[in-house]
């Protein structure tokens, strides 16, 4: 696992924690999330949720890059 993947994983975990903390504390976002009515989230909740999904997408990209061979490394046979 590369350093970029480790950093992306930490970032994704922090973004998930931010969303969970906000969802628990916000009177608007808690019922909207329960109903999965994402359009009803408050502006901060919408921004935090979007950041969580962006961090998750970046983590997935880094994991895909980790599965690729190292640049300049060819097959031995």
Structural features, described:
By secondary structure, this protein is an all-alpha fold. The protein has one domain. The chain contains three helices and no strands. It has helices at residues 3-25, 29-35, 43-67. Helix 1 runs antiparallel to helix 3. It is elongated, with a radius of gyration of 17 Å. 18% of the residues are buried. The mean pLDDT is 91.
In short:
The chain has 77 residues and is an all-alpha fold. The chain contains three helices and no strands.
The Cα radius of gyration reads 17 Å
Q: Could you report the average pLDDT, rounded to the nearest whole number?
A: 91
Poorly predicted runs are none
Helical percentage: over 70%
Please tell me the total number of domains: 1
Structural class by helix and strand composition: mainly alpha
Amount of beta strand: under 5%
User: What is the number of E strands?
Assistant: 0
Count of helix runs: 3
Largest sheet: none
Question: What distance separates the N and C termini?
Answer: 25 Å
Broad shape? elongated
Sketch the topology as an H/E string, one letter per element. Answer: HHH
What brief labels describe this structure?
77 residues, mainly alpha, 3 helices
């Amino acid at each position: 696992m590369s350093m970029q993947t480790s950093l992306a994983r930490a970032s994704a975990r922090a973004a998930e924690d931010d969303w969970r903390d906000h969802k628990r504390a916000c009177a608007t976002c808690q019922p909207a999330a329960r109903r999965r009515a994402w359009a009803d989230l408050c502006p901060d909740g919408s921004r935090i949720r979007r950041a969580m999904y962006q961090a998750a997408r970046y983590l997935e990209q880094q994991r895909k890059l980790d599965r690729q061979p190292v640049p300049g490394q060819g097959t031995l046979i």
